[in-house]
Amino acid sequence: MKKTLIIGIVLIILTLSLVVYHELINASVSMYSLTNPMSKIENKKAYINVTYVAGTITSGEKNSFYVMFSDGVQYIVYMSNSFANKINNYLLDNPDDSYKIEGVTKLISNTMEENGKKFVKEWLNHTHNHEEENHSHDITTDEFYEYFGYIYLDNTISLDVTKIIIYITGIIGILLIFYSINTKYHLI
Question: Where are the domains of the chain?
């Protein structure tokens, strides 16, 4: 019985230590701090405070790549279409507010770069005067990476194995402590 209680307490202490360690290692940082033109930091937990949803670079059935603005800086964000619609509706109803989203950074692929360049060209053609209709707004690869950097924010839900291990360890520790107390005092 004492061994069970000691093992339970050790598991709870281990769980709390893992939670603190996991949160320190995976602390979310502003996407702005990661998007300097040469940054290629992958798998870093990051966030942006979205102020405007410009549109999609590529559309999928469930998830799409969106161009979103935060404080005048544009980012590419991969997220579910329903969540993007929720953000857009919120921002339309609250134009002076922003919507914080979190995700993990991923490198921009060549395909996404090509689609992004098409998006920027259409965006620039749409936003400029009709007097400039004959002017082409093609952008180079270098200009694309100046606009967006080399990474995008992946907001899709992913399985975090570390969190699952932490939860299981904590649950087992609590059960062992409860079992020890129940064996001694016959609570149940």
Answer: 27-159
